[in-house]
Structure formats: structure tokens, C-alpha cells
Automatic annotation (TrEMBL), chains A, B:
GO MF term set: alkylglycerone-phosphate synthase activity; FAD binding; oxidoreductase activity
Transmembrane segments annotated in the record for this chain: none
Keyword terms, alphabetized: FAD, Flavoprotein, Oxidoreductase
Site annotation Important for enzyme activity: residues: 309
FAD-binding PCMH-type domain segment(s): 93-274
Species: Nocardia bhagyanarayanae
Cofactor(s) demanded: FAD
Binding site for FAD: 125-131, 207-210, 258-264
Protein name, UniProt field: Alkyldihydroxyacetonephosphate synthase
SUPFAM superfamilies the UniProt entry points to: FAD-binding/transporter-associated domain-like, FAD-linked oxidases, C-terminal domain
GO biological process, one term: lipid biosynthetic process
Family the entry assigns: Belongs to the FAD-binding oxidoreductase/transferase type 4 family.
Domain of life according to the entry: Bacteria
């Protein structure tokens, strides 16, 4: 990925005249992008890695796999939250890890952790670097030196069991690499979060990622069968069977552990045959409440499509402004997307059941095209954020989840907190929302916020983030449905799991990482 | 429940002439039951509860709710494994908790735990007392005194959210009590393990129970939305949303914690409307491998019925011997049962999809009747075990799970270990097996073992259990799919989660239960 924005250079496109017009009208910004810095000109904090430390790490992974060069350090300087991107765009020196270490396998990860624990070096496990919660910030904690442990070389498909539908994947594989290896065997994982193109298998597990096909294939944590984990204290291999009653499920301690309890090096996942058929169907609902009740009816009946999502009025309107007049007619209300994957018979049966339920709940079928368009553009939104940031517009996302009965209230309170906290700063926002992950008992809410930037957009967003985090907790939501805790959501974790829950997590960390080298400042 | 056998007196029936004939033929036993002891005549170890301890506990829960009487102690003397029942039937004094304490609510549980931690009293959390793995044995550990903490008074339905499909239930409710309270609201939990009639909501959670409708409604751990837990260190309330990425899922530490990490006092569960329709369909497969592949096809296609189970040739044959010539024709091969619940449309669509898949996989439809007969008798097997024990026949069950590709090998190795270890003792067993819980990646295997008792049937079974536990682990199974660890499966937990996994569990226990009073000798 490029150092100061999302993705690859080819993904970055200037804003359309239509959007520039909209921004001028709503926020009064000109739409002329600021110049970006050339990465060679960016001053970096000097590496604190001592020659002895370098020698020690080289002994484990080889000289080619320890890097303290400018290019590598800059690319491991943190994740891709809006705050991260604003910090990269700011003048002045950038912080970065003192070195990047690229281990080849589980044993090398173990050895690196042992070395770092002995020599007091903080370790930030690094997958795709797509964290939007400060999960890979180069925090030193109590140590002088911090390394990023980049897992990209652990990239094998080491075991496939087509009968059971499982595959064992290296933690460093990106989404597309994993799907390509699986497709060669006629299989697919079906995990497509917005970060899919860059994020890694280990990262998906460590952050409890959830993809856009979660209605059909489940969250990433649902897919995990086995985990191999390296810690400063030794290795863990967890998950002996599809289900077990052999005590607490320790996998669930490491799924979501965000590199603070150990380094996930290998994941065995539930996979499925590449689908024979995919059916697409878009829907319109008169309003968000009606649409949400329709999604609920479908998922509670057990008729869930593979993809099931609903945009609110604001998001529906703005997406249409971006994509043109979809399907040749103006869509008002709220757009919903469904897709169905599987055998032709399975798709036909499920689609018929869902169609009947969505129609009965007040939906109007819009045909295939809006659903195909959504799928085509589904990984593009982060590029749009960069284009907005470049023209002085703040753009950020956040997400939560709650029960169906609490969805409307949580949505209203989050929207109010954003509107109030940004409005009070003189920058009233546009707030858009969608439901993208559904469960029998509730759903996620994903918010996109756009506002005019102030002179200090970092402080501007931090004020809003504090207000909205508090609003989420007081309205009964979870502080994060699939972005994880990282550094940014840490203030709310005690409210999420209680002070005693935090003590339990600390007790586990003390046992596995007594020196406290693993990802300081994240999670707990 | 009666003190020395399963269930209620009315459930106990003498063996039929047909079964007595079979037993005489196969094992050479006469079929005349031994006399049982009158409970008043059973000598009990004297209660070690001191007057001061009694006063301390009475202060928390009131005088009516601390009992050291013979009747109560005998009924809390342990669970219902075959070893438990053989020990009850043995001559000599019985061990039992020194007192039973019946707290009214979460706060009283907290206070009892605080008192016991301070005064060095071991605490065995007690739900329905149906453990078959020694999970509620009155083990004192390093303490002089042990109490059973019977949760039956925590029996409320404290919150119902019909929109989200959730209900909050007291840990002490039995299965039928919970279903009755829910049915009054038009709801059902759908959790029907063989222990359903006596086991409790808290026990289901603490042991990762799985019911016979798990294909449709999931395992109990899948149903858990929120948990309220009392520990000697304080309370935990876990689970804020249907799904979350807020770090490790700490619920999964307490689901399956078997009273060793805390006492679950309240559980919020996913529930569903009482089904409009239930469809029944039984199937015959020529052999177990064909039947297993058929079940796999159904569950991997996402067409899972509510109930989906398959008996092997031996179990099919013996069940038919018991029930007569089902459906008016002799069934050879392997019997499978499916049921479908939901709206009429949902049932019709699912049933059609499953029927097509099962037929294509070599199944022959047998109509409704065998499926209805199975449902009618599905809680009766433990009574049959008592009748067998009474005539000098050993009868026990055990269960495991593995991936689909490993099912045949695991089944063969478990059967061989049972046959060899009991055969070597001169008591070759009948071994029956079924699949009762299916997942996309694998399934459970549930074994029923019947053999002639030796003079010391406890030692006889312990030899077999050791052999079969080792066989399960070496063949890649889990030591328990839904019976839990208790005391009986503890020897295999290090192989299941690794020595480092055990250290993690101990670290959590030290944090929450520093005095080590909670359920000594169980789990870890």
C-alpha cells in the first residue's frame, strides 16, 4: 500500500465534477486537492535499533529479513484510520517502528518473540496494515525499541481437506492471495470485508473481522477451526474438532487478541466449494425502520441470503448521486442488497423464500443491476475517503451492533452524538448509515461521517469520537462490531467487559507475555 | 431425581421379556434385578460443617436455605454417570457435600462465595445434578468442608425481547421449566439434550451442552447472548451485542467453565417463536458411511433440518429389537431421523431440499412414523441404563467429534479400543454409535456400550475408559463433544488444549478464585 493513503496508486481517482459540486454546495470547499509529500522527503524518527539488537534479530531470520530502511519503516508506521492518514499528511517527522522483521515461519516467530522478551524490545505484529483503530501503531510502551513483525512470508496453504471443507492458511496471506490458492482447489473462504484486498488472514482472526458475505458464510471468527499461536512463553495449538465441550473455548481468547496475547501464525478455516450460481437482487424500502424489520424477518426465518444489507435514506441518496441514476429510475427510500450463492436449486429455494418475506415486509424488488453495481464497487470507498481528505473534507467510519429492538434508538443516538459534537465545532456533518451484518438477535450499524475539516482535523475528530463512543455505550451498543479495539477503542473496553473482565485479560497476558512486549498500548 | 438412579420413580420400568431374552443370549445374565437400598439405610459420611460455618451461611441465605439433612445431602452426592450409579449401588458409606446452600439470587451467590473464600470452604455449583463426567462430585480439595451450591431458587424469566428473539433466564431453571415460561410468551429455546427433563439452564451453559435439535437451533453455547457470573472476586456481565470485535470473547471462557471459574447465575439466550409446523421424515441408508456422507451433503449445502441424526447398523438393529418392527417392515442398514420446524413455507422448502439431497446420496425415505417414535422416546435411554445396571449389565455412553474426513477412522478406533479393553477382561461389549450433531466441517459420534458386569464393574469400566480416551485423542477427536470435562475427562485436557492452554486456564482461575474454592478437582 502507499504510505500516506489507502491502497495502490491506481485506485486513487480524482473526485468527479458532480461530487465537487456537491461538496462546494454543502461544505463550501473548492474541491482542489492539496499536494501530497514525496515519501523520500518525509523526516522519520531515527531508528533506535542497536547494532547488537540487529545482530540478534538477523541471527533468527537472516540479514535480508531485518530492515530499518526508510521505505519499509514508513510503510509500517501505522494503520489506515482517518487519524492515521491525517497524521501522515501533517508536516513534521513521522514515528515508525525501529525495524521491520520478516519471519519465515512459526518457529522464527517464536524465536523472535523469545529474543525480544529477553532483550526488552516491543513487538507490533503486522499483517496487512489496514487497521482503522490504531492497532498497528509503533507504540514502544516501556521499551526503547519497537519492531514491526511483518508476517507476509508466512503465506502457505499448508493443508486442504475438501471433504470436511477446511483449509489451513498462513497468517500472512492477503485476502486475494488466500482466495487464489483456494480457487485452485475449487474452494473459497467467502470473507470479503472492505479491507479484503490488503488485509491478512492473521489480521482477520486477530481482529474478529466480518465480511460482506457474513449473512451466508459467517463472521471470520465463525470460520476459525484451529489456530496456531506463538507467544513469548511458547506455542498454542487450539481447536481439535468442529465443536467441543472440553472446557472454555480458548480459541476465543486469541481470536480478537489483536497481537497483545500472542501472534497467530496459522489458521485452519471452514471453506466451501466455489459457488455454482450467484443470484443478485436489489430492493427498495420506504424507510429504514421498514427495511430493518424486513431484514430481521429474513434472518429470523433462517432464510438468510449470502449478502444482506440495507442503506439508510442518506446513504441511499448519496450513493445514487455517485453512481448515477441506477437502473434507469430514481430510487427513493432505502436500498437493500441481497445475493444468494450455492447450487442452482439452493439459490432458487432461498431466493424464493427471501423474496416472499421481503415483499411481505414492504420491499419493492429493483432487479439485479443495483446489486451488481454494489458488488463491483464494494472495495472502493476507502479510496474515496482519501480523495475527500485531500480537498479538506473529513471522512471517517465507525460501527457498532445491537439487538433488533434497540437498532432504531442506537442509530438515533449515534447520529445525534455526531451531529451535535461536530455541529458544535461549526462543522455539521453528513451522517450515513447501513446495516451490513445481520444475526437472528440483532445487527450491525455502520456509519460514514463527512464534514468540512477544521484547521486541526485530528482534534476535531477526536472530540466527535469521544462523544460517539460514549453514546454507543450508553445506548447499549458494542464499541466495535468488526473494527476491533486497537488503541482508539481502549477507553471503552472496561465498559464493554467490566473491570473484572479487564483483570482476566491482564492475567492471561501476564501468563503468556510476562515482559509485556506484545503490542503495547493496544487492547488492554 | 431419585438418589441412586436417573430421573423419577415413574420413569423406571422393568426390562421387557424381549430384552431379557437378548441379554440372556448375548451375556448369559438372568435378567433378575438386584434389590436397591432404601435411602434411609444408606450410611453417609458425617457432615464436616461447623456450627460457625452454618451460622455464617445462614446469615447470607436464611436458615431455611442451608441444609445438612440426610435426604438433601444424598441427592447432592454427585451426578449420574454410570460410575456414579455403580458407586451409589455399592455397599458402604456414601460421600456427600457437608451442606447444601440454596441462594435466592445473584447477590446471595456472590455473598456465599465471599464467605466460603474467606473461611476456606469448597463450593460445588449444582444445577440439575445430571453430570455424567463427575462434574458435581463433592470434592473437598485442600479444604475440610465442601458445600453444594444449589441454584434451583434462581428460577425467573426476568426479561423477554420478542422482537430480538432473546430471553433472560435464571440459572436454576430446568429445561421443562424454561420451556414452559417461554411457551407462555409464544417462544421456545429448542434445547433438548437427553438430560432436558432435569438439567438446568446454568448447567447447560457451564458444560457446553448440545441438544438434539442442534442442527436447527445450534448448540447451547451458540444460543448464549449474555452471561451474569458470580466469582469470589466479584461479578462479570458479558455480552453486549449479538456480535462484537471488542477483543477476546470472554463469554467463551465461562461457557464451559464447569463451575471452576465462577458461578453462572443468569443467561440471556436466543429464542424463537414456537414453530408453526413440524415435519418428520425417517430414512434408511445401506451403511453408516453412506449415511454419514448424506448428512454431510445436507449440512454443507446449508439445508440442515432441525434434527438430523444417523444410527449405525448396531444401534439401528438394537433399537428395532426394542421397538418392534417399525413401520411394518424390517429396516436393515442405518436409520436416520430428520425433523423440520418453522413456518409451513420454510418447512416445505427445507424439507424438499434435504429430501433431494438425501435421496441423491442413497437414502430411502421411511415416512414419518420412525421419526415420531424416536421423538417420543428420546429422553428414555437413561432409565434403560438403570434397568440394565440392575440386572448385572454394564451400560455407559461417551461421545466425541471430529471432521467429516476423520469420522470413519475415529469410529473404528473408538470401537476397537472398547472392544479390546472390555474383551481382554472377558466381557466383549456391544458397541452402538450414532451421529447426533452435525456441522459443515464435521460431526459428533455418540457411543453406547453394553457389556456383562464383572464383580468390580467400576474398575472394569475405568480400564475401558482409559483406553478409549487415549484412542480418541490419538485418532484426532475431542475428548468430549457435549458431556464436558468434569473429573472424568481431566486427564486428557492437556492433550486437548496443551500445557500452555492449561496454564492460561489456571491464570484465569487464580485471578477470579485465588483461594481455589470453586469446584476443586474439576476441569483443571
Amino acid at each position: 500500500m502507499v504510505w500516506d493513503a489507502w491502497g495502490i496508486p491506481a485506485g486513487h481517482k480524482p473526485l468527479s465534477a458532480q461530487i465537487r459540486g456537491l461538496l462546494a454546495q454543502v461544505f463550501g470547499v473548492s474541491g482542489d486537492p492539496v499536494a501530497r509529500r514525496d515519501e523520500g522527503d518525509v523526516p522519520l524518527r531515527a531508528s533506535a535499533l542497536t547494532p547488537a539488537q540487529r545482530d540478534g534479530l538477523v541471527e533468527v531470520v537472516g540479514a535480508d529479513n531485518v530492515s530499518a530502511d526508510h521505505h519499509d519503516r514508513l510503510r509500517h508506521a501505522g494503520g489506515k484510520s482517518t487519524l492515521d492518514l491525517l497524521r501522515r499528511r501533517a508536516e513534521g517527522p513521522q514515528d515508525a517502528p525501529d525495524a521491520i522483521v520478516f519471519p519465515a515461519d512459526h518457529e522464527q516467530v517464536l524465536a523472535v518473540l523469545a529474543y525480544c522478551a529477553e532483550h526488552g524490545i516491543a513487538v507490533v505484529p503486522f499483517g496487512g496494515g489496514t487497521s482503522v483503530v490504531g492497532g498497528v501503531d509503533p507504540v514502544r510502551g516501556e521499551f526503547d525499541t519497537v519492531i514491526a513483525l511483518d508476517l507476509r512470508r508466512i503465506d502457505g496453504l499448508t493443508e486442504v481437506d475438501p471433504v470436511s471443507g477446511t483449509a489451513t492458511l498462513g497468517a500472512g496471506l492477503t485476502g486475494p492471495q488466500a482466495e487464489e490458492l483456494l480457487a485452485a482447489q475449487g474452494l473459497s473462504l467467502g470473507h470479503f470485508p472492505q479491507s479484503f484486498e490488503f488485509a491478512s488472514i492473521g489480521g482477520f482472526a486477530a481482529t474478529r473481522s466480518s465480511g460482506q458475505a457474513s449473512a451466508g458464510y459467517g463472521r471470520f471468527d465463525d470460520m476459525v477451526q484451529r489456530l496456531k499461536i506463538a507467544t513469548p512463553t511458547g506455542s498454542l495449538e487450539l481447536g481439535r474438532a468442529p465443536a467441543s465441550a472440553a472446557g472454555p473455548d480458548l480459541r476465543e481468547l486469541f481470536v480478537g487478541s489483536e497481537g497483545a496475547l500472542g501472534v497467530i501464525t496459522e489458521v485452519t478455516l471452514r471453506v466451501h466449494p466455489l459457488p455454482e450460481t450467484t443470484a443478485y437482487q436489489a430492493w427498495s424500502f420506504p424507510d429504514f425502520a421498514t427495511g430493518a424489520a424486513a431484514l430481521r424477518a429474513v434472518v429470523q426465518a433462517g432464510a438468510a441470503p449470502t449478502v444482506l444489507r440495507l442503506s439508510d435514506e442518506a446513504e441511499t441518496g448519496l450513493n445514487l448521486a455517485r453512481s448515477g441514476d441506477i437502473g434507469g429510475r430514481a430510487v427513493t427510500g432505502c436500498l437493500a442488497i441481497t445475493t444468494f450463492e450455492g447450487s442452482a436449486e439452493h439459490v432458487a429455494a432461498r431466493s424464493a423464500e427471501a423474496t416472499a418475506l421481503l415483499t411481505a415486509a414492504g420491499g419493492t424488488a429493483l432487479g439485479e443491476q443495483p446489486a451488481r453495481e454494489w458488488e463491483h464497487g464494494r472495495f472502493a470507498a476507502p479510496y474515496m475517503r482519501d480523495a475527500l481528505l485531500d480537498v479538506g473534507v473529513l471522512c471517517e467510519t465507525l460501527e457498532t451492533a445491537t439487538t433488533w429492538s434497540n437498532i432504531a434508538e442506537l442509530k438515533a443516538k449515534v447520529t445525534a452524538a455526531l451531529t451535535d459534537s461536530l455541529g458544535a465545532q461549526g462543522t455539521p456533518p453528513l451522517v450515513m448509515c447501513h446495516i451490513s451484518h445481520t444475526y437472528p438477535t440483532g445487527a450491525s450499524l455502520y456509519f460514514t461521517i463527512v464534514a468540512k475539516q477544521l484547521d486541526d482535523p485530528i482534534a476535531q475528530w477526536q472530540i466527535a469520537k469521544r462523544a460517539v463512543g460514549d453514546a454507543i455505550m450508553s445506548a447499549g451498543g458494542t464499541i466495535t462490531h468488526h473494527h476491533a479495539v486497537g488503541a482508539d477503542h481502549r477507553p471503552w473496553l472496561p465498559a464493554e467487559v467490566g473491570e473484572l473482565g479487564i483483570r482476566v485479560l491482564r492475567a492471561v497476558k501476564r501468563e503468556l507475555d510476562p515482559a509485556g512486549i506484545l503490542n503495547p498500548g493496544k487492547l488492554i
